[in-house]
Each structure stands twice: as structure tokens, then as C-alpha cells.
Write a sequence for this structure.
């Protein structure tokens, strides 16, 4: 059976998730409402549109017939993979609860290098005495920017919105993170991070 703190944290997490889902749905609906479909230019209905005729001010929601679709390059895919790793790492390591016994740190073990894991594991060993006060923090990265790219290494600046529940009160605040990633045996891993 779950403790009261765990139930409260789960209810709070579900509530935050519902708010985020509703916000996302409203944002998508708003964007779809404001999107303009590019109409073909010409007198006939089936006239194809040349990509050079499309106005840069109009939002293209459909790919015109005959338009060239360029796939992502290998470098772009690698950058996206590294950026996604940095984002997932920050959201996991920064989301925690006094009831989860450092599960947030255990959750990132497969996302980090051995040397960083040794540092993080030390935090688990250095657990202090719990004073019984419940604290729960949920982190969501809303900005992830590439700082430096080296092919086998990269660094990112991230901004996270944190929602903290303490003494029954909710507080929102923002934290900035610097995350370095490296490619080890074909897999991206976080090698270092710093909360600014």
C-alpha cells in the first residue's frame, strides 16, 4: 500500500500532467486555427505550385506537389539525438521527491558516462537524515540550445521550469543547466552537467 506522501505526489504529478496536456492541446488547436494553407496559383484547380512562388509570409501546412523534401543529414540527426539526451537527462535528474529515495539519480545511470555515474552515485551514499517533510519537484525543459558541436561531443544550454510542492504549497521557478555529452561506442552519454 502506498504511503500518504506517495499518493499525494502521484495525484500532484497527474494533475500537472493533465494541465500540461490541456495546454498542449490548446496550443495545437490555436496553431491549427491560425495556420494558412497555401493555395495553388493559376486558373486551373490542379495547377502545381512551384516552390519559388510560395510566399515566405504564408505558413505552409502541406507540401506542394513536386516540391523536394530534403531528409535530415547524418549530422542533423546526431545533433538532435544529443540534444534529446541532454533534455531527458535534465528532466529526470531534476525531478525528485523526498519519498523516492534518489530514484531520479538511479534513472539516469544508463544515460551518463561511468565517471559521471560515480559522482552521482556518491549523492545516494551521502543521504542525510530525513526530517519527515515532503518535498516534490517536477522539471520540464522548455529551451534546449546547442552551445558547441564537435561531432563526437557537444554541449547544450537548457532552461527548465520546476514546480515544487512543499508544505502543501506549489511554487514555480526556473533553473538553467549546462550539459556536456560525448559519444561512447556509438551511443550519446552525458559526461558532465552543471546547474547555473
Amino acid at each position: 500500500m502506498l504511503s500518504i506522501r506517495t499518493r499525494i505526489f502521484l495525484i500532484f504529478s497527474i494533475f500537472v500532467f493533465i494541465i500540461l496536456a490541456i495546454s498542449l492541446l490548446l496550443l495545437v488547436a490555436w496553431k491549427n486555427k491560425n495556420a494558412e494553407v497555401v493555395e495553388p496559383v493559376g486558373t486551373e484547380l490542379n495547377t502545381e505550385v512551384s516552390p519559388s512562388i510560395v510566399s515566405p509570409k504564408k505558413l505552409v501546412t502541406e507540401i506542394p506537389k513536386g516540391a523536394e523534401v530534403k531528409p535530415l543529414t547524418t549530422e542533423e540527426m546526431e545533433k538532435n539525438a544529443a540534444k534529446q539526451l541532454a533534455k531527458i537527462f535534465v528532466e529526470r535528474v531534476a525531478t525528485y521527491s523526498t519519498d523516492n529515495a534518489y530514484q531520479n539519480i538511479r534513472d539516469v545511470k544508463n544515460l551518463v558516462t561511468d565517471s559521471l555515474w560515480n559522482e552521482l552515485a556518491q549523492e545516494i551514499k551521502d543521504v542525510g537524515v530525513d526530517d519527515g517533510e515532503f518535498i516534490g519537484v517536477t522539471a520540464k525543459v522548455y529551451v534546449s540550445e546547442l552551445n558547441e558541436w564537435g561531432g563526437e561531443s557537444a554541449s547544450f544550454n537548457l532552461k527548465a521550469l520546476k514546480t515544487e510542492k512543499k508544505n502543501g504549497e506549489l511554487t514555480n521557478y526556473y533553473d538553467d543547466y549546462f550539459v556536456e555529452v560525448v559519444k561512447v561506442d556509438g551511443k550519446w552519454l552525458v559526461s558532465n552537467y552543471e546547474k547555473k
About this structure: Residues 71-195 form a domain with the Nuclear Transport Factor 2; Chain: A, fold (CATH 3.10.450.230). The mean pLDDT is 82.
